[in-house]
Every structure is written in structure tokens, then in C-alpha cells.
Design a protein that fits this description.
single chain, 129 residues, alpha+beta, Yope Regulator, Chain: A, five-stranded antiparallel beta sheet, two-stranded antiparallel ribbon, 7 strands, 25% helix, 27% strand, globular, TfoX_N, TfoX N-terminal domain-containing protein, TfoX-like
């Protein structure tokens, strides 16, 4: 389920110290982007931040909840997004610290992806002489 309009606006406001925050529907969920990089996902108005080996310690508290996942061919696939504890919405400084850690992980993930292939330039036809 995607983020409600109210929840999306709330997240844009809360995460605004990080940069330009946008949300986009994808795969029945909502991706949370900052300056074009996906740092989180929302499902059923629950925020999940991106986690990797370098920020896992920051998100230690989030291990109490299952990570965002999906079913594929009868198996559950865990994603690298961990649920943000509700208490952080009452702790704006700590919430932004988690957001920065998630954004840093998102940049590391983006840097590892291969650059998109560039299409060949269209051939020019010779003009008849």
C-alpha cells in the first residue's frame, strides 16, 4: 500500500533538512527520494530507511522489526530497508541523523550501480551529391 497524501506531506516536511524530498509510487509502495536518490520506502504509512553495512550500527534499534520484504516464488525476500521506530517522529534531531545515515547508504548503493548504457547516436544519412 502506498503512502497517504497526508503522510507523504508529513515526511517531506520532516526530511526537508536533508534536501529536496520527493515521493514516487513504485511496486505498490512509495519510494522516498532526496535529491534523486532513494533513501527510504513507505508501505501502509510506515517508513523504512535504507541500511547497509556502514550504517547498520546506527539502525541497531530497528532490528527489533522485520525489514521490508516481498514474496517471490513462494520465498520471502528481505530488502535493505529497516523500519523507522515511531518514537523518532518525536525526536526530530535523531530522526534527521537516521535520515542522513540512510541517505549516505543510498549514495553508496547508487555509486556501485553501473552507469546506464548510452544509446548509439543515430546514423547520419549522406546527402545525395
Amino acid at each position: 500500500m502506498v503512502a497517504s497524501d497526508t503522510y507523504a506531506e508529513f515526511l517531506r516536511e520532516q526530511l526537508s533538512p536533508l534536501g529536496r524530498v520527493t515521493l514516487r509510487r513504485m511496486f505498490g509502495k512509495t519510494g522516498v527520494f532526496c535529491d534523486g536518490v532513494m533513501l527510504g520506502m513507505v508501505t501502509e504509512n510506515t517508513l523504512y530507511f535504507r541500511v547497509d553495512d556502514q550504517n547498520r550500527e546506527t539502525f541497531k534499534e530497528a532490528e527489533a522489526f522485520p525489514p521490508l520484504n516481498y514474496a517471490k516464488q513462494g520465498e520471502t525476500i528481505d530488502l535493505a530497508f529497516w523500519r523507522v521506530p515511531e518514537r523518532l517522529f518525536d525526536e526530530p534531531d535523531e530522526f534527521i541523523m537516521w535520515g542522513r545515515a540512510a541517505l549516505a547508504a543510498a549514495h553508496r548503493v547508487a555509486a556501485k550501480r553501473p552507469a546506464p548504457k548510452q544509446g548509439k547516436a543515430p546514423r547520419r544519412r549522406k546527402r545525395p551529391s
